[in-house]
Specification:
Blueprint (H helix, E strand, L loop, with lengths): L2 E17 L5 E8 L8 H11 L7 E13 L1
Length: about 70
């Protein structure tokens, strides 16, 4: 049976960059690497909420990316 180990985790703030000339929304991302793999979703969310007011653009979404190594 396969198992997985978390290698790394990152937090991304998705920010509103306005509209382009065609009226399509521009999304900008600010990423923070080296998030502890054991950090809970609530903790990551709380950090993102604390960082959001420090940004120059409005927050649209919060993303977490985990990288796993899968082995047998």
């Amino acid at each position: 049976m396969a198992s997985a180990n978390t290698l790394s985790s990152a937090l991304s703030l998705v920010l509103d960059g306005g509209l382009d000339e065609k009226g399509k929304q521009i999304l900008k991302r600010k990423s923070f690497r080296n998030v502890k793999a054991t950090a809970s979703q609530d903790a990551v969310y709380a950090v993102a909420q604390a960082l959001a007011p420090l940004q120059t653009l409005p927050l649209i979404d919060i993303e977490r990316t985990d990288v796993f190594q899968i082995h047998e």
